[in-house]
Amino acid sequence: MFVPRHAGRGHRRPPAGRLSAEHVVHAGYDAGEIERAVQAQMHHGRYAPSQIYYQPDASQAIVDVLASVELYTQKRFHDASPAVIKNL
Fold it and tell me: Among 38, 39, 63, 68, which is most exposed with the fewest C-beta within 10 angstroms?
């Protein structure tokens, strides 16, 4: 996977605090640098899948939270009478 890095950075690391898998190559916005990064990735071939963001049963945990919270609506909707709609 190729990910452009911030133009002002002179290194190939992700921005501070951002995780990226070991097979992600960070490159600047320079066309030559981008081309070299893409060529290197294509030359390497397929990588093993990354589990960097994997968490077992994540979807079920989300379902459980959503099922247990009280729904909140900020706006209230009212049906307009046909006479009001006609005068719009």
Answer: 68
Q: What total of structural domains would you count in the chain?
A: 1
Give the structural domain span for 85.
1-88
For 47: left if phi > 0, alpha if psi spans -120 to 50, otherwise beta; the answer is beta
Indicate if the pLDDT at residue 14 is higher than 70: no
Unique residue bearing structure tokens 């968490």: 55
Q: Judge contact between 34 and 4, C-beta under 8 A.
A: yes
pLDDT above 90 coverage of the chain, percent:
31
Q: How many CB atoms lie within 10 A of CB 27?
A: 19
Asked whether residue 9 carries a pLDDT value surpassing 50, the answer given is no
What tokens were used for 58?
A: 């994540």
Is residue 29 within 8 Å of 48, Cβ to Cβ? Answer: no
Using left for φ > 0, alpha for ψ between -120 and 50, and beta otherwise, residue 17 falls in left
Q: pTM of the full predicted structure?
A: 0.44
